[in-house]
Amino acid sequence: MMPSLFISHGSPTVLIEEDSAGRAFLSGLAEDLPRPKAILVISAHWETRSLTVTGAEEHKTIHDFYGFPEALFQMHYPARGSSELTTRLQGLLDAHIDPVRGLDHGAWSPLKLIYPNADIPVVQLGLQSGESPAYLYQLGEQLKELRNEGVLIIGSGAVTHNLGEIRWNSTQPDDWAQAYEDWFVEKLESGDKDALLNAHAEAPHFTRAHPRDEHWLPLYVAMGAGDTATLLHRGFEHGNLSMAAVRFD
Q1: Is 141 exposed, middle or buried (0-12, 13-18, 19+ CB in 10 A)?
Q2: Which of 20, 107, 208, 229 could covalently link to 103 via disulfide, CB atoms 3.0 to 4.6 Å apart?
């Protein structure tokens, strides 16, 4: 049975920063996973009002960022879609199909490190960022059965994400970011699901860690799709950008 994952995908520069601990973690992650039949990604970078899934047979690579080195704009991730998984999701969720949407960098940049050969079909499910944590958790519960069908479910976002306070190349984490990640790890490892679902009110420095919460919300879909949580990685890059990742079995 496949797990579900929540991964902090970091800055796009993780693809070219050879001394990045987050890059090293993502590059070795596939070694500890069963090989999936297909991958379903819920990314912070595709927000939709209604349930929508990708339906393209071959995905274009969306470079939805700016101001980064040219090498990143030359990268592509030519993964196939999966009409089988798209149809399955349409029936399971009564979802709309977007026939032309490609893979945003919340999907393709971590996948390029985890599965660099782009030889596993990928489908994206839009993030309904206007919905509540409870709704997103229940959505994950609806997806749980896909794990028995060989589908790897990935929520791709960030445990902390405040672009206005990033300190490029700083190796010393900010106190507020460290406090937030510490809280996250403690609640995760103690199995305090209720606290995590109420993070907007309970987590220290929530609004500083997430001026907008779209990078936090994919966690709830991954949580709902799994059960027992295992912390896979933690730590910071660029001062306060957490690279924490969790596996749910």
Answers
A1: middle
A2: 107
